[in-house]
Fold Na+/H+ antiporter NhaD-like permease.
Amino acid sequence: MHADNQVIFATAVFLITYAFIVSEKIHRTVAAFCGAALVILAGIVNEEQAVHYVDFNTIGLLVGMMIIVGITRQTGVFEYLAIKAAKSAKGEPIRILASLGLITAVLSALLDNVTTVLLIVPVTFAIARQLQVNVIPFLIVEIIASNIGGTATLIGDPPNIMIGSATHLGFMDFVINLTPVVVVIYTITIFILKLIYKKQMVTCPELMQNIMAMDENAEIKDPVLLKKCLTVLGVTIIGFVLHQFVHLESSVIALTGAALLLLVTRMDPEHAFHAVEWPVIFFFIGLFVVVGALEEVGVIEAIASLALDITGGELLPAGLLILWLSAIASAFVDNIPFVATMIPLIHDMGRLGGIGDLNFLWWSLSLGACLGGNGTIIGASANVVVIGMAEKRGAPISFMTFFKVAFPLMLLSIVIAMLYLIAWYILHTTMAMLATLAVGIILALVLGWLGKDRASGGAQKSNT
């Protein structure tokens, strides 16, 4: 196939695959796999190149964490936490709403947001039923909290997992650079959500007593297994914190944690592997190959050149462009395929534009894609999961019901993120300038001292 035809074919396959993923006419895993098969059959990429484009660090991290969480969920600890949070709120619906939001955000940061909502939503329905209040505000808060919380760490949201795998950024890099702004965004967002839903969160004291009568301890099904799971989970998280210093990939840490948990629990591997969302894993594999074909024929490089022309190759405008583009795009399409496309594009922007430090662009992409997922009910995987669970339980959430609350909050979060990125850029630029100035001053003093020393040495020789 001629080079120009390869470009057209690869682009067409990508767009058609993307269209099927967004429309959900066929399962997104099938769409991604068919797209991958087409670009390989057409010779755009061969088998070896296709394997090269698959990011096995992302795949390994997802599989490892899915196994760990899948075994841990059998203990009932997540139901325990949800009921404990409701009781700590004294059964008051508005306080429960905030408590469940906080639990969701924290668990989304430490595990992943899709798994978190799968665990929290069933308990939420039980609590809302006891209080006889509308469950939809709880679900909307949990969706928004899961995406905000997932933004804070490397393992919290699939886009962050992909960014971390494609760069040299580690767990603590995400925590140090993203968690502060995530805490601010979450606090402001929950405050506004409480104001929005305050009038709907009304019940009687008798029903509040139903919550206080719930026994959270009864949810713990296997205390011995729980201790083993929490120990291994703690060791795994410590491994994530240290993985850059011990020069191990995050996937190695996650898979080692999964192997250790399988060993200490003596659980049947076949049963444990049922916890792995294999359609999600194969969706990623197909997607990596389809995007790899675009990279192979030079489409990604061309788009990167266009972006550099628009921003003049300047770091700050490029970062803000990526932030807003990612946010708006991720609100209306799944943020995973969008980030898969953006990662090679940012790499090419760095290579073509001579941008030395790409970290600013990675933080822009992370904040835009993860927070932008809150814009609509189809913006992120966690959103789609909650919507599906709500429909099965007879509490459907319409597109507009979610949109009119979540989209303005998403825009507000992006404005806050933009201000944070500008401050981050100014701070790091100022520090770099000060460091350069300090080095210059020290160098000048040393040279001056050496010159003075030589002059005094010459004077002594002439006197002699």
Notes: The two ends are 85 Å apart (CA to CA). The chain has a mean pLDDT of 86. DSSP finds 21 helices and no strands in the chain.
